[in-house]
TrEMBL record:
Keyword list, A-Z: Hydrolase
Species per Swiss-Prot/TrEMBL record: Lygus hesperus (Western plant bug)
PANTHER family: FATTY-ACID AMIDE HYDROLASE (PTHR43372), IP13792P (PTHR43372:SF2)
Signal peptide: none
Active site residues according to the UniProt entry: K126 (charge relay system), S199 (charge relay system), S223 (acyl-ester intermediate)
Protein name, entry field: Fatty-acid amide hydrolase 2
Keyword Hydrolase tagged: yes
Family annotation (SUPFAM superfamilies): Amidase signature (AS) enzymes (SSF75304)
Gene: FAAH2_4
Pfam family, one: Amidase
GO molecular function: hydrolase activity
InterPro entries per the UniProt record, alphabetical: Amidase_dom, AS_sf, FAAH2
Amino acid sequence: MGLLVFRCCLWWVQAMTFVVLWPYTKLRTLFMKKQSVPPIANPLLFYSAQELAEKIRTRQVSSVDVVQAYISRTEVVNPIVNAVVQDRFKEALKEAAAVDDEIMRNPDPKYWEIHKPLNGVPISIKESISVAGMSNHAGRRGNRIADSDAPAVSNLRAAGAIPIMVTNTPELCLFWETYNYVRGFTNNPFDSRRTTGGSSGGEAAIIGAGAAPFGLGSDIVGSGRLPPHYCGIFGHKPTPRIISVEGHMPVSTDPEWDTFLVLSPMSSHASDLPLIMKAAAPHASKILCLDEPVDLRELKVFYMEEHRGILTYSVQNEIKQAVHNAAFYFKNMYGIEPFKFTLENFDSGMWPVTVLMCGMKPPQSVLQKSEDPEDWGWKEVIIEIIKAFTGFSKFTIYAVIFCLLQRLVRLLPKSVEKNCRNYKANMIKHFEEILGDNGVLILPVSTATTHLHYRMYYKMSTSIYLAMFNLLEMPSTTVPIGFDKDGLPIGVQVVSTKNNDRLTLAVAKELEKGFGGWLLPRKDTDSTVQRKNQRNVN
């Protein structure tokens, strides 16, 4: 009964929101100029983080030159994408100069490869992740400054990475559209009228625009995978509890919080993802066997082009074709026959995701009046809902609705939570039986390519393709595959069982070889050809 009511309510909300917002977004575009980021001029910006690190430690290029190249690119593209919350360009250039001095004193490249594999390479960080001295308010009003690095950031620094900026996020990372009342919309590098997704949309926009080689975002219900799909880059949701989430805003003391929330490496190159994983969490290599080679000939490949449910939109034909092409690539290259994957109650997963996540000890809330995240109740929710729908709330509507969901879930009987946990256990078992230790599932990241700003409000149910794998604690990697008819990027999602990150990362690297990888706006003509030509100039 609870699931039926949930479906009916969500369907009604989506339908009503569509009626209001679709014509508004259409009219809005008539008064907005489409902008996309300009072509990349500096050949250094086409290299992977791994390649840049090698060039720096072998003194083919200085860290200062690399960092300055990304600073210059940021200054060009940020007026279009509006992704940067705060930069640390001056500090980064000083740190880059120190790296160059270190390498001059010890010119042994092997030493730096072992001890600081990312030495001198710039990185961008999502603003919700603590970087000492930088904004860390997760899109809220106020001026919260981090007094220390999050452990993952500290580890990346220890590996030699140089943070150059923190990037935009929706208020408290609570939506799939990167928008807040402090910074406004972050725009897609392909079309400024369109969304980057969320909540790691600032990261995806900056990396997709060529203003950072790699970055660190977060993912609680797809936040580290949807933006890469919309922006033409790679994003990885690791197995939970591999990369520490300490230092992330928001945070919860609930013991299950870090089974949903993970920190997500993002990059323009698939080859960087394992390196970022190992740098952010030095123990990851051992737990996940990241250094063990993957024999792709022994892989089992499953694919799901679409799941048709009561709440889900139909999948765009070009995305279905991309999923099919990615799966059958392995047949053409390795003789692996891909199997079609079906799951009748796949879209039912939004109910347990909502119940289990909203039923946790609450993280920080927009309604809290003190340091206690639970010092608010129904009175505050009702007042703020009225304000939100009459245009007087100082909080974004999605952050207020999340508070409402938290209160509603507490009214449910314990049997509902039990049923949701049973659903989770059964689904984990089902996926483990099918995929085993050597299987991957290729499926859509979302039902469509990037859409106009505001439209995510009536497309929320499409997030089931993402949220399911947070619920099931499975690793997943977004891989860019090609463009749709409008020149917008298409990504697919590669999923495997818990602790089998190395499989999804290996498949991502193989698909990068087969389909060209990082996608740039079409005015660059062919993205792959342009990257190769520019790199050869250097």
